[in-house]
Amino acid sequence: MKDNVRYRNLLQQLKVLQNEIGELELRNVADDWEQLEHEAVRAEKMYQNLIAKRGPVFGEIKSKDEELRKYLTEWDTDYKDAAVRYRQALVNLTSTKAVTDDVAKLHKAVDQAIMKYHSMKMEEINAIASDLWQKTYQGTDIDTIMIRSDDDEESTVARNSYKYRVVMVKQDTEMDMRGRCSAGQKVLACIIIRLALAECFGVNCGIIALDEPTTNLDQDNIQALAKALHGIIEARKHQANFQLIIITHDEEFLKHVHCNDFTEHYYRVSRDDRQKSVIERQPITDIMAS
């Protein structure tokens, strides 16, 4: 039965195939030939077009090959050690950046140190100046003097720049001394500030020179200044490099300083008969005894 069924199916398939063969035999073979001929012509034209385009493409490829050989030659000559040089340049760049960062940190640290040092020295100078003023000035209208430092906003300097002014203090009230003090007060303030600066910054160069320090000072302030100078000399006389030079016409001032406690001679400048300067070394006892 299976074979019978299979036989019948094959007969059915054979019948279908015979029908298809008949249909193909009935088709117009000439139409297929024309279509194929048309396609062949079109393919030939496309082939010829591709042949025509192949020449420029080959020329461009040849040009690119020449350019590539040129680049390869340049690489072998100019960029042969590019990797090594790049590494060295990177190391230099990194090192320079690290040094720059360290310099910036150092610059900032130095700025902070300078500001701190400035603040510390200003406090020290004002303390010395205040002490000297209170010991020297005999008036009651000024309790003390101070140096004030204000930031200079107009300065273009990287570090802080300051404008300094001298103020006088009376019962915690500060006023600028410029234009408000007498000539004697101005002279005394100048001397005291110079002494304070010498005390702060003249540790290794302890030379103080005073030229006519008693100008415009009254007798009480002259005596007070002499007493203050005597105290400074007494405190620093054991310092090996300390020296006080006083140029003055006021011999009474020298007596108040008690110069004979510290020296045995002084130099007197005078004029001879021909009006020429003469410098004579004389014993200090001549002044103290006169």
From TrEMBL:
Catalytic activity: ATP + H2O = ADP + phosphate + H(+)
Pfam families from the UniProt entry: SbcC_Walker_B
Coiled coil: 7-53
Cofactor(s) annotated in UniProt: Zn(2+)
Keyword Flavoprotein on entry: no
GO annotations of cellular component type: condensed nuclear chromosome; Mre11 complex
SUPFAM superfamilies tied to this protein: P-loop containing nucleoside triphosphate hydrolases
Keywords annotated in UniProt: Chromosome, Coiled coil, DNA damage, DNA repair, Hydrolase, Metal-binding, Nucleus, Zinc
UniProt superkingdom: Eukaryota
GO BP terms in the entry: chromosome organization involved in meiotic cell cycle; double-strand break repair; telomere maintenance via recombination; telomere maintenance via telomerase
Protein's cellular compartments: Chromosome; Nucleus
MF terms in GO: double-stranded telomeric DNA binding; G-quadruplex DNA binding; hydrolase activity; metal ion binding; single-stranded telomeric DNA binding
Family according to the record: Belongs to the SMC family. RAD50 subfamily.
Name of the protein this chain belongs to: DNA repair protein RAD50
Species of the source: Lachnellula subtilissima
